[in-house]
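[SOLVED] Need 3D model of a two-part complex

Original post:
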Amino acid sequence: MDLSAINPVLLLASLMVAATPILLGGIGELVVEKSGVLNLGVEGMMITGAIAGFAATIETGSPALGFLIAAVAGAALSMLFALLTQYALANQVASGLALTLFGLGLSSLMGQGYVGLKPPSTPKLDIPLLSDIPFLGPVLFQHDPMVYIGIAIVAATWATLKYSRVGLVLRAVGENHDAAHALGYKVRLVRCAAIGFGGAMAGLGGAYLSLVRVPQWTEGMTAGAGWIALALVVFASWKPWRVMVGAYLFGGITVLQLNLQAAGVKIPVEYLSMSPYIITIIVLVIMSSGRGKAALGAPASMGRIFHATG
Amino acid sequence: MIRLEKRAQPSKVWTYATPLLAVVLTMLAGGLLFAALGKDPVLAIRTIFYEPLFGQHASFYLPQLLVKAAPLVLIAIGLSLGFRAGIWNIGAEGQYIIGALCGAGVGLAFYPTESVLIFPLMVIAGGLGGWAWAMIPAILKTRFGTNEILVSLMLVYVAEKLLIGMSLGLMKNPEGFGFPGSRNLAHYPSATSWIDQSLGLHWGVAAALIAVIAAYILLTRHMLGFNIRLAGQAPRAARFSGVNPNRLVVFCLGTSGALAGLAGLFEVAGPTGSVTDSFNVGYGFTAIIVAFLGRLHPVGILLAALLMSLTYIGGGIAQSQSELQLPAAAIQLFQGMLLFFLLATDLLTNYRLRLTRGATA
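Solution:
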């Protein structure tokens, strides 16, 4: 074992890359849950975004277009969920699971011709001056644009939820859909929009995996990233900035674990690669054990079916 | 305008009719999907649903039907108990793997001793393994209020890594020329779960039938079954009548874990034979579809599992048949669609559609 082989600069730099997929998936799901809907289909939308973005990039040669298509694909898939839960009034847990199973099947069908291909690389930003700072430069300022777009989306989500009227309506719908309905807000419409946003973000996160992080297409490549994104929302107590903190924490663990593998730690690879999942469980336990602290942040109407009788 | 009116009672007729309607709709949508893939839709549907049952090689496929349905029934029966009570175990795939590892571990430890006691011991180990794996989310939920959906699912990935570790390490066949994977338990007379391979009968099939009957009795004749249904339909009423929610969580997760563990053991000691990194094929997730398609009712689950098993086998035929060559993923998508249509058509069970003229208040 040679721990000195781990370069702290590279470690911290790859942390931001590793965190971005779950950051995007998590912030999308946060908005969905804030509107009072629990969508367990993040994994399915993410992997559909992964293949849609990958295929689009291969066909057009443009990663930017790939990301756009991925967001559209994720949102389109999420509309199936919206249709089921908002209009057919189906159980949200079951519908979310259905979306994940469907997405996994759909993605492996779509991805048949794309196994083993290499996508054109996404250009890295090279900010003059900033990226030349000795330690901080490579860690913070030499990434592809999606890393920063992810952070910008978190900031925008936070500001929208906290300071704008749209955010207020969204939170009202999530806290008490009957009251929001009585006030004349279109509960279904708001929720469908939130679900669509969640789908688009999950799609982006998936595309980031297949276009930047890996970059390749393999079946089932999200490997639970969508579910970790769901756990992230609980971890964050439904607060946008904490989603980012959580994502970097998980990203850090993933990267550290990979680095330990590379450094030849005397633990078999299979056992080391369990760590992100086990850490997720431990974090969930810590968050939920503080006497309903996590439950405090949960939107009151989450998971409940809304049916306007009036 | 179509208006929805909530029914006072779920419709009896639609309760039975929606799964059938969902199957028909899935066939139609599946046909469109196959046509979009450039395959003959009629031939594809016929190959999937007709060929295994009545085709010229039916005698070969029918035993397969039992082999594939058995784990689905075992797992789905367990899941349905929890789903009824609003306890979501979606990590059955992990419990299935751990059951197989524990059971196979016992069998491999005794190799090559022959004794009638070995297989029963393996069964116990398999069941306990699955139970213990499900106890993790159960205890975390009852003790700390942690979400059982996420925990049980995370444990699937942990179990998959453990499976890879075992098949490459501890359980690797010492006479396997360095290839990953354990000794073949199906060739070890004291440890195999096969009763008659040519009929597709193994102990898992028997256990599945017992589980159906036991679950039926539990749900219709036993106080615990009543409490499970009560907790799902009216949690407040359940609390007032003294149902302990924590005990219900432990019971439902434990039972479903043990059943999934058993399913894994019967599979590893028979149809699959050995512990390999590709041992699990997603029965734990397909069983979720089976449980819903069977309306969370034991008999319904039995029928739904047979249907789902049919799509696996028919899908396999359609995959290998030269004029179709349907991709395996198409079948997975097909199964996912089934759950979608089922959830959508369920609207008719709980609501009445009313046509109203013009705008209503």
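Edit: The radius of gyration of chain B is 22 Å.
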